[in-house]
Write the structure tokens for this entry.
Amino acid sequence: MYMCGKREAPVVFGKVVVYKFRIDGYVYPPVKIEVPRICNMNQNVDCRQNRTMMNEFYTTKATSFGGTAFTGWDGKLWYKSEWALNHTYEYAYKSCCALNMYLPITTTFDEFKKLYDSINGSTVDNYYGETYSNPEGERWCRNDAKLHVDMTADNFSLSHERSFLYTRRGGKPLYKLTTLMFSHMFDTRVNYFYCESYVDPNEAQK
């Protein structure tokens, strides 16, 4: 029962099992539970396109809810939101979906550094696409590509539950993704967020 619960329902199991006991009644530290990270937004939030907003954006290079289009470091079309103090991760995710775009991801560490240099600056935090964990490591939810280990600030060792990714204000540490639990999602805000247009990884390799 112990192993089945840990394997088949790790999140629930982690909430139930708090302490382990021996027959002598001595209380030991909590059992360490490794809960796989999942694609929370991708699995639980509809990514809905808004044709009116898309037509407006691709025609005028702007949107009625603010923000503008620009050509990114990779030559693709990007969206930069308007400046505000209240952009949550969920809002950024849904806004990118409305434009048929996505929160940014990269397939190599070199690409990540170029992206970081182009959007992070010295005074802003930024959101990135979701990842999930499997026995081989951390992977992007959008294209199943494996993250380069040098991208992570803590190797995500503190995030055994659902979490989202961002880079910290001021670039400390430089060129590193950081995780934050979804329970803090509505308490975490960024001044800007960015969306990238989608390119099929198989097409990009041709």
User: Anything to note?
Assistant: The radius of gyration is 19 Å.
